[in-house]
Design brief:
Layout: E1 6-10, H1 17-33, E2 38-40, H2 43-47, H3 51-59, E3 61-66, H4 72-79, E4 83-89, H5 90-95, H6 110-134
Parallel strand pairs: 1-2, 1-3, 3-4
Length: 135
C-alpha cells in the first residue's frame, strides 16, 4: 500500500434516510471492509475550514458519498481543493435497486442496510482501484 489512505466523506444528510445509508456504507468500509486503507472525516469540519480536515482532503485521495443530488460532500471537497477521485450519489444506486425501500434515520431498516452493503462493496472496490494506481 502507498503512503496514503483513501478518505471517504459522507454527507451530513441529517434526518434523511439516504444520508444515513451513505454514512452506514462509509462506516462499513472504514471499520470493517478496508480499515487499514481508509478513513473518514466530518463534513462539517471541512465546511467550516478546519485545518486538519483541509489538509486531509488535499493530501489524500477522496471519495464523496452524498445522499441526494445536492452533492454537499462532493461540492465541499472540490471547494476545499481536495483530491476528489470518485463521487457516489445514494439516489443513483437506489434507482438501480428499485425493490429496496430504505427507511430510518437513527437505525436503518433491513432494506436500508442492504443498500448500504451494496454501496460499501462498491466503495471497497473503488478504494482498491485507487490504491492499486498509487503503486
Amino acid at each position: 500500500m502507498g503512503k496514503h489512505k483513501v478518505v471517504i466523506i459522507p454527507c451530513s444528510g441529517i434526518g434523511k434516510s439516504l444520508g444515513t445509508v451513505g454514512r452506514a456504507a462509509t462506516y462499513k468500509v472504514t471499520d470493517h471492509l478496508r480499515p487499514k486503507q481508509t478513513r473518514t472525516a466530518c463534513l462539517a469540519l471541512l465546511t467550516v475550514g478546519d485545518s486538519e480536515a483541509l489538509k486531509l482532503v488535499k493530501e489524500n485521495p477522496c471519495i464523496a458519498i452524498d445522499g441526494c443530488t445536492a452533492q454537499c460532500s462532493k461540492k465541499n471537497i472540490e471547494a476545499s481543493k481536495g483530491n476528489l477521485i470518485h463521487a457516489i450519489i445514494v439516489t443513483d444506486v437506489l434507482r438501480q435497486n428499485r425493490t429496496l425501500k430504505p427507511e430510518g434515520v437513527i437505525e436503518l431498516n433491513a432494506e436500508g442496510e442492504k443498500l448500504a452493503e451494496i454501496i460499501a462493496e462498491s466503495l471497497a472496490e473503488m478504494v482498491d482501484g485507487i490504491l492499486a494506481e498509487e503503486k
